[in-house]
Amino acid sequence: GQQLNQSPQSMFIQEGEDVSMNCTSSSIFNTWLWYKQDPGEGPVLLIALYKAGELTSNGRLTAQFGITRKDSFLNISASIPSDVGIYFCAGQPPLGYTPLVFGKGTRLSVIA
Amino acid sequence: SAVISQKPSRDICQRGTSLTIQCQVDSQVTMMFWYRQQPGQSLTLIATANQGSEATYESGFVIDKFPISRPNLTFSTLTVSNMSPEDSSIYLCSVEDTDPSAGLGYTFGSGTRLTVV
Question: What integer pLDDT is reported at residue B57 of this predicted model?
Answer without folding.
Answer: 96
